[in-house]
Write the C-alpha cells for this entry.
Amino acid sequence: MQLFRDTRRAVLLTVCLLSACAAADPTASVDQPPLSYGSSGNYLAGRFALSHGDFDTAADDLLHALAASPDDSDLLLQAFIACVNAGKPEAVRLAQRLPGNQIAQMVLANAAAKSGDWDQAMARFRALPKAGVVQFLQPLLLAWAEQGAGDTEQALATLRPYMDNPRLRSIMALHAGMIADLAGRAGEADSHYHISESELGDQSPRSALILASWHARTGHLAEAEGILSRMAAAVPEAEIALPGLIASVNKRPVNRALDGMAEAYATFAAALRVQQTGELAMVLSRLALDVRPDSVTARLLAADIQANAKNLDTALALLRQAAQSSDPMVPLIRLRHAAVLEQARQTDEAIREVERVGRDYPDSSIPDLELGDLQRDKRSFTEAITAYDRVIGRIRQPSPGDWGVYYSRGIAYERTGQWTRAEADFNRALELSPDQPAVLNYLGYAWADMGRNLDRAREMIQRAAARRPNDGAITDSLGWVLFRQGNVPEATKLLERAVGLEPEDPTITEHLGDAYWASDRKIEAQYQWRRALTLNPAPEDAAKLEAKIKSHPYGTVASGK
C-alpha cells in the first residue's frame, strides 16, 4: 500500500528547498526579524489553501498578506511559491525580489524567453549553480535558450560533455536530437536520436513518440510503429492510446525552443516525482506549463502529484483541462480522471466516466479492465465478472502479462461463492506468472481458511512472503495458515508482526484476537476483537465480530477474513 506524504510537510519542504537556494545569496540577512503579518487572516487562509493544493486561493490570500507586510522574506517566499504553482503573472514580479533563488531565476528566464529576449534567458540559465537539484537541468535549459537565439552549434556543444556520462547520455542525446531536428540538421539529429533510443531501454509514451516521430518523418514508418508497439507492451495501459499515437507520428512533437524547455522541465519533474519529491516536481511542472501551456505531459504530471498529495479537487481540475486537448494521450487522461474520482469516493461517476471511454474506444479492453476493478472495489462482484469476461474474451493467446485479469476475476468469483471457478482462475494466473505474490497469497489464504491443502497453502504463502517480507497481509496469511495447522505460538508471533505492519486492518486484528483466545489470553483477545470493530470492517464481517464478542466461545474460534 502506498503511503501518501503529509501535504503540510511537503509545503514546508518546498520552502526549505527554496530557502536553501536563497541562503546562497551573500546579501541575504542571517538574522531575520520576527514574523509580523499585517493581515493574519489572509496569511492563515493562504497557508491553509496552499496546504490543500488550492493554489489560486493561496496566491490571492498570500499576496494580500504580503501587501500588508512587504518586508517579510518568509512571506515573500511563500507567496512566490503559491504564484508559481497557480501560474499567476505576479510570480515574475516576486521573482525579481529573490535574486539568489534558483526557481525565481528560472521564472525570470522563462519570462525573457517568452518575450524573445534569449540573451537574458541564456544569462540567467548560465548563472544557475551547477550543483544540487538543478545541476543536470541547467545545461538542458541553457542549450534550448541557445537554440532559441539561433546558435545550434553552441546548443549542441553545451550538451556534448554530458553525453559522456552513462547516466545522462540517453536524456541528453534525446534533447540534442530534438535541437538538431528543429534546426534541420538531419544527420546529427539521426545520430543523437539513435544514441537515445539505444540507451533509454523501456521508454515512456512521450519519449517513444518523439523517437517514433523522427523515424516516421524520415520514411521509416515500420520502425516508428515498432517503437510505439514496444512501449505499449511495456506500459499496457498505453495500449488504448496507441492508434492515436500512430496517427500523430508524422507531426514533430517539438516545434519551438520554448517547447524544448517545457520538455526539459517536465523530464526532471517526472524524475523528482519518482523520487517522492513531489513538491519540487510540482514547481517544475508549472514552469513547463509556463512556457508551453498546452503541455499535456506537464499537466498530467501536476495532476498526479496533487492526487498523491490528496489534493483531489486540484487534480481533477487539471485532468479535466488536459482531457480537452487533442493529444493522443487523452483516453489515458480520462481513465486517470476516473481513478481520481474513485479516490475522491465518487465511484458511481468514475464508473460512468470509464463506460464513456469504453464507448469512445471500443477496440480497447483497457476500459473494461478498469470497469471491472471499479465494480469490484464497489463490491458489485457480478458486474465485475461481466467486465472481466469481456476482457478475457478478447485475449487470443494468453501471455504472462495477462495474469492480472484472471486473478481479479478469481477474486470476484470467490466473493460471489463460485469457488470452483475462482480456484481455476487463480491457478490460471499462476500458470501465466508463477511467482506473483498476490496470487500465491490469495489462493494460499483461501485454502487455509477452508482448512484445505494446508501444507501446499503454507508453501505458497512462504514463497509470497519471501518476495514481500514486509507485506502485512502476506504476514497475516502465513500466521493464519500456521494457526489452522495448530501451531498457535508461531502463528501468534506472526500475527503480532502483521498487526504492526497493518495496524488499521480489521481482519488482521481479528486474527490476532483469535490467536490470543486460543492461547488462553482471553482479555487480550476481547480487546483485539473490539478494536477490529472500530476499524470499519465490512458489514458482514462486523456482524461476525459482534457475535464472536458476545458468545466468546471456548475452543475453536470462527475464522475471519
